[in-house]
Amino acid sequence: MRSLPLILFLAGLCVFAGPPSAVALAASEAGSCVGNPELKPLRPLTVRTVRGEYRFLVEVADTDRERELGMMCRRSLAPDRGMLFDFGRERPDAAFWMRNTLIPLDIIYIRKDGVVRSIVRNARPLDETPRPAGGPILGVLELAGGRAAQIGLQPGDRVDFSIFRARP
């Protein structure tokens, strides 16, 4: 019997610790998606770029189960919506993948001070390739694929939301 990689699920993505499974396996599992309801209430979040401020209404995934499901099985995401993953404490080595995620997403890794550490742009649906943050993070913002480029979001820009505290 073949051993499976150790995987800790977070979102429709995951924190990864081992080689990814085949994309074909993820695609076959996606056929069993039965829906994943929106997390309520939606909360306002602001992203500040050199182009200006952009406001989003986000679902907040702050429990293990909510982070495990994330954007799995969703068939659309409006340009003014997103999901914020609140880990509750800084994570030194997070990496996300797109297991059972049916739409392209921009994955924005955010430091504890609200500064964008890195961005995965247009992550491909159902792709189980791990996408690491590249350093410690406190949260992840998922937006519709391509939205980060539309607003000019770059590493070093700021996300304003209650979990992020600016350093003096």
Task: For the structure shown, list the relevant keywords.
single chain; 40% strand; 168 residues; disordered N terminus; two-stranded antiparallel sheet
Short description:
Helix content is 11%, strand content 40%.
SSE arrangement, N to C: EEHEEHEEEEEEHE
Instruction: Please state the average pLDDT score.
Output: 84
Bin the helical content.
Answer: 10-25%
Question: Which runs of at least 5 residues are low in confidence (pLDDT < 50)?
Answer: 1-28
List the strand order in the largest sheet.
Answer: 8-7-10-5-4-3-11
Q: Termini, distance in Å?
A: 54 Å
Fold and architecture overview:
The structure is a single chain. Helix content is 11%, strand content 40%. It has 168 residues and is mostly beta strands. The strands form three sheets. Strands 8-7-10-5-4-3-11 form a seven-stranded mixed sheet. The radius of gyration is 15 Å and the shape is globular.
